Amino acid sequence: MPLDPTAPTDATAHSPAAPTHWLRNPALPPWCLAVPVLALGLLAAAWGRPLGLGLGAVLTAALFAAVMAAIHHAEVVAHRVGEPFGTLVLAVAVTIIEVALIVSLMLAGGESANSLARDTVFAAVMIASNGIVGLCLVLGGLRHGVLAYRVEGTSPALAALGAMAGLSLVLPSFTQTTPGPTYSGSQLAFAGVASLALYGVFVFVQTVRHRDYFLPVGGQGGDLTDARADAHPDEHHHAEPPSNAVAWTSLGLLMLSLVGVVGLAKALAPALEAGVDAAGLPHAVAGVVIALIVLLPETGAAIRAAKGNRMQSSLNLALGSGLASIGLTIPVVAGLSPWFPFAIVLGLPPMQIVLLALTLITATLTLGSGRATVMQGAVHLVLFAAFLFLTVVP
Predict the structure, then answer these.
(1) What's the predicted TM-score (pTM) here?
(2) Domain 10-392 top-level CATH class
(3) Lower CB density within 10 Å: C or N end of the chain?
(4) CA 337 – CA 185 distance, rounded (Å)
(5) Can you name one GO molecular function term for this protein (predicted)?
(6) What digits encode the pLDDT tens for the residues 104-131?
């Protein structure tokens, strides 16, 4: 059956001009079929072996190739199922992989990795809210002038993001039941349940109750009067939806690509940690690198949507990935906390709390009008640069 009940069936999806066999469909070029398999093959061949310079370079190249393949397959699936379900496909899939990577590295790293979940989730929020949003606003604004999106979709996302980040990353630094920036068992359970509940409600609102709030404004150019809004049509957005066979194949290859991404990242993690220690950098840098890797597919998809004048899709991806990072990671970490031989550090230091507050206040102001230009994007990119700089030089 079709991935979306309202989508065209196989019979109608194949127009006379469309390929009659999914292997010849331009939605699945040969490289994106081969990369996931090759990445998994390299991962299996290198697993457990010491990483020299040559092998490390090969695995790094395979990692980024797997990320690019994941971007492509996610866009194919998203085009088939339509908005806003398409933007959820990549957000949820990548976050599940992120959770698996965090938990495995925390178990392997011991007490020295007790703040990895906090560092990675905070980095994911900052990358999504400042890096991805800022980049999309700048690139989209340079190409189309004024960008349109729905405030009804961005406002609840920002409200949920602020509440979830406050409960999970800020309050642990101020509670009194346990010493330090940690939660007690019951407090951690409450934060996990609250985060999961808020994320579940957000997904319900986005996909069922108020789905129209998260659809691109007016299709191609929204209601913009700027003539440049129609100057760069998005061919991918208006192309014939892929067939069921192509969509299901891309979904399977997306999963393989994401498994390859997390496996290769885990294989490269010891070299990463050794490099961070050798350079004398703070341990939070490792969390930033992990978040950057796992958010690369969403970043690529969001940028493509912004260039196609579908800023709402970009914001769905950016803010949705931040929400998914907290809403799925914190509950899993809370559920597994009894098996960790150390207390999980969740509370942010004062400097990071200030950065989070600045981000939420700025996002409320820049995304509160339904229209944006490169100016709003520049503000977010400056905050993102400050986050990266202060992570390295706290």
Answers:
(1) 0.79
(2) mainly alpha
(3) N
(4) 8
(5) sodium:proton antiporter activity
(6) 777 766 777 788 889 999 999 999 999 9
